[in-house]
Amino acid sequence: MWDAFGFEFVNFYLIPGLVLGCIYALGAIGITLTFGILRFANFAHGEMMMMGGYLTWTIMAIVTALFGLTLHPLVAMVPATAVVIFLFLLTDKYFYKPFRKEDTIKVVMASFGMMLIIRSAVQAIWGPNQLKFVSGIAKPNEILRDVSGSIDLMLLVPNKHIWIFLGTIVIVIALSYLLNKTRIGKAMRAVSDSPDLAHVTGIDVDQVIRATWIVGGICAMAAGVFLAMDIQLLETTMGFRMLLPMFAAAILGGIGKPYGAVFGGLVIGLAEELSAYPWIGDTPLLSPGYKTGVAFAIMVIMLIVRPQGLFKGRSF
Amino acid sequence: MEAYLGYFLYLLSLLTVGGIYALFALGLNVQWGFAGLFNVGIVGFAAVGAYSYALLTTAESTFHLGGFGLPLPFGMFVGMILAAAIAAVIGVICIRLRSDYLAIATIGIAEIIKLVFKNETEITNGPRGINKIPRAWEHFSEERFYSSWPLSWFASPETWESFFDWLPNWWWQPFFAGTVLLVMYVVYRLLERARMSPWGRMMTAIRENEPAARAAGKDVTTRRIEAFVIGAAIMGLAGALFAQHLRLIEPTNTFDSAKVTFLVWVMLICGGSGNNRGAMLGAFLIWTIWSASELVIGGTISLIGNVFQNLDTTILETRAGFLRMMLIGILMQVILQKYPGGILPEVRPASPKADKS
Amino acid sequence: MKNVLFGASALAMITSGAFADVTIGNPMAMTGPIPDLNAPIAAAVDLAAKSVNEQGGMFKSGEMLNIIRADSACDPTAAVDAVTKLINVSNVAAIVGPVCSGATIAQAESVSIPAGVVTLSVSASSPAISTMEDGTDLVFRAAASDAYQGVALAELAIEKGYMDMAVSYANDDYNAAIAAVFVDAYTAAGGTVTANEAHEPSKASYRSEVATLGSTSDNLALFAYYGSGGITVMRNALETAAFSNFIGADGMLSDEVIEQIGAENMGGVTFTTSASDPTTEAYAAWSAVAEAGGVPAADPFVPNGYDAAFMMALAIEKAGTADRGAIAAALREISSAPGEIILPGEWAKAKEILAAGGDINYEGGAGNQDFDENGDVAGLFSKSEVVDGAWVAELIK
């Protein structure tokens, strides 16, 4: 039934929820892999996302200044990804690796400290003011609107959201190929499932850790740029604001389970957007002032009721 | 002369705020240092303590619930009890979670607590916050206090009014700082006694080797909840003192996790977790660095500006605050790696047998 | 720890004492949620000090006016700490500053009122500040209370024929306060508020919120900072065509909004800001000063920043001493009639009149700056709309 109700619900609640969900999902993949393989909650992950957005912006600005071209963020993202991966590996070497044999708490504290260092560094370098990523208003894609409109299923999806959906699908497919078909991917899964056993079978754990940071870095990068494409601006707190929902997504899906993280991300994104839907009467179900609380509440409830997550991830 | 008075008053304010943070650090030390509970929701308990104190002790107001005008110690006591009660509920549900899970759960719960304070405008005045919070000692110079018992028992309101006018306007500062330090000292003594007691040694045993403690028949879960609740009560008390110091509290910026929770963690790690003296030392040290670094950085920038007249220092000025945060982050990394035990590492209480020998 | 303290205070002594003769503390909000708004206001405060120092400085001896900046971060904790240092260590004569209302109230109640130091806020607009003091006369502000702007905005909405409106406000001290005033005034004036919801600042998406609000009305009263979520709310509302008309207050008024959203999308947008009559001499003088100093004259609270610092300098000059006690009374005298009118930038003239024992009355770029008994100024307000890609302000009569 595609009446006014369906039209509004799909275009103004469901699709935005999925967009947000895609961004959470990509971020949560990195978190869940780090959590599963390196066994700590990386609080600096959100800041890496933010950093990715800023680096992409810088590359776009440099290209514009030098050649007068406007690069698409998805193109500028490629060299920026290399820098983010390098930063991930660098922080691992100097700040996380020293604690690998010690209490988890220390490395978690170290990542907490990294979060502050990265954010303050970005604020000191790029300044605290928000930056313009892409200006203007994103109008719905006309082809999709007309085609879907002609069969009475009018969809209003701007191009930036189509890119985000496609990008997420490509990354998730690539990830599943990596994890299921390649040697390193299988090794990653093995370490995540049982580090001791993996070690005994002769898997090079250091290599697996490097691969984890690279995969996590690519996903964080994509999440950061997609977020910047969606809100069309950059601010220094945008990473931190995504962090807890992404943790929630990772926990919901089960720690160490990339597909779980994707599913969890989509659920959290949808739950946040749908919480403002007037399910009962014509006021939002939950006051939008509490919107940020939705993800936290889901997360806390999951931790209490089913800490291993929906996809039976690791439970400590 | 006046300049020295200024430095003295600044020293008092460092001691006051340092003392409040020391209480936070002591509370965290019970949870983390004693029991190994990774609580990243300090702001939540601080906010509960601060808001209960504020609502109970302020004069009646149209902006928020009540303003019940109750005695200050009562407000602090209730702040403590409510923080403990909430911790008990959280503890019963979450205490079995492993360290990082507990961290994520507590940070989430703290954010939810803040959201409630922010959105339940009828009770808390929402983001606009509660102001005119009475501060210990200084509050005596407010009419509603000096015209009622116990002060009214000593002299008439008029006498008090002229007396407070006669006092230098900073008279209450040494008293308030002293009160904070006294509270801190009392809490410290009590915690030291607890640490030395069988209870304290059992906590260490549970933290270090849980299966062994369990095998020895110790009720691990209950002990952990106890530590969590005691720590939260101290944090609630610290929150109430924090509200007195600020005199205005609001949910967003006063209780910012990066500033409160993180700073307290740095204090404890730096001072030495597991060591109560270390917790206090870390609090005073880090707060002094945090506060004085603004003077040093600001001074350096204006020095640069004065030496190189044609240099535009505006950008340095606007960015300096972030360098301060970065400094604290780097400091913590260095301490974590080079001095894992902190400045004053944990000293295990000697067993009674060792005492005798 | 003592060494650190000693070093810090020694350095502070060198840097604040050696070069400056009259110091004013200026706690701004370089970090925290609104760094965007902060930078031009800080520049305006510096510009006022520059005006003073270029035209003969303070007092007969021509002492320098020095602004010592600190960071209040819109945060009560940081503000209390920053102002404690300004008052006790830097030993400032007065405070021109805090940007946010919460920080202003906290620093005033906790530090500056007990210490007997005058605070003149550049932009704290919360109605709570009017009723904050208990019998002291130490807190002033150079920006009009939201109690006035909210009413002006409600009248504007009615005048524009928006008889029903949805209200969305960012859940922070400034926006929640002005939204409450607006809703009361608008309802009293006969308008219907169809929905009134808070939103969390700086979220990634507000599409569902605007969709829910948008189903009730075509007009949105948006109270937010453009720098923390305001632009995203507007963008989401325009993308989903949830609203076609927007009104809002000065937190949203910035060139940044046009640059980000695009002028072509902003046909139905009207924002108010506290303003002075642009036809007055005072405003002309201010915009000339601002242009010469490279400061954006019309950005939110920028003229207020200049006025506040300039008036504080005038008050200290009038008092004849940097002693804290005499400044409050002097501040009232130099800002109100009777007296020779002094416009922004006219320091030499004011100094001459004051030296001769005359009376002056400062009229600023942000308004006539006459303080009432609460230390508040009445506000004139302007409405700004986008014409040819830029904000064009028009005074609301």
Number of separate structural domains of chain B: 1
Radius of gyration of chain B: 22 Å
Query: Going across the major beta sheet of chain A, what is the strand order?
Result: 1-2
Q: What is the level-2 CATH architecture name of chain A?
A: Orthogonal Bundle
Number of strands of chain B: 0
What can be said about the biggest beta sheet of chain A?
2 strands, antiparallel
CA-CA gap between termini of chain A: 45 Å
Rg calculated over all Cα atoms of chain A:
20 Å
Beta percentage of chain A is under 5%
The total count of helices of chain A amounts to 12
Largest interface: B-C, 63 and 63 residues
Please tell me what the overall shape of chain A is: globular
State the helical fraction of chain A.
over 70%
CA(first)-CA(last) distance of chain B: 56 Å
Overall 3D form of chain B: globular
Label the structural class of chain B: mainly alpha
Helix and strand arrangement:
The complex is a heterotrimer of chains A (316), B (357) and C (397).
Chain A: H1 4-38, H2 45-67, H3 73-96, H4 104-126, E1 131-132, H5 142-150, H6 159-181, H7 183-193, H8 195-200, H9 205-231, E2 233-234, H10 238-253, H11 258-274, H12 291-305
Antiparallel strand pairs in A: 1-2
Chain B: H1 2-34, H2 42-57, H3 72-94, H4 99-119, H5 121-124, H6 143-146, H7 151-154, H8 157-166, H9 172-196, H10 198-208, H11 210-215, H12 220-246, H13 260-271, H14 276-307, H15 314-338, H16 352-356
Chain C: H1 2-17, E1 22-28, H2 35-54, E2 65-71, H3 76-88, E3 94-97, H4 101-115, E4 119-121, E5 139-141, H5 146-159, E6 164-170, H6 173-188, E7 192-199, H7 207-214, E8 219-223, H8 230-239, E9 245-248, H9 255-261, E10 269-275, H10 281-293, H11 302-319, H12 327-335, E11 340-342, H13 347-355, E12 360-362, E13 380-387, E14 390-395
Parallel strand pairs in C: 1-2, 1-3, 3-4, 4-5, 6-7, 6-8, 8-9, 9-10, 11-12
Antiparallel strand pairs in C: 10-13, 13-14
Looking at this protein, list some descriptive labels:
heterotrimer; A: 316 residues; mainly alpha; ABC transporter involved in vitamin B12 uptake, BtuC; 72% helix; C: Rossmann fold; Rossmann fold; 2 domains; seven-stranded mixed beta sheet; five-stranded parallel beta sheet; globular
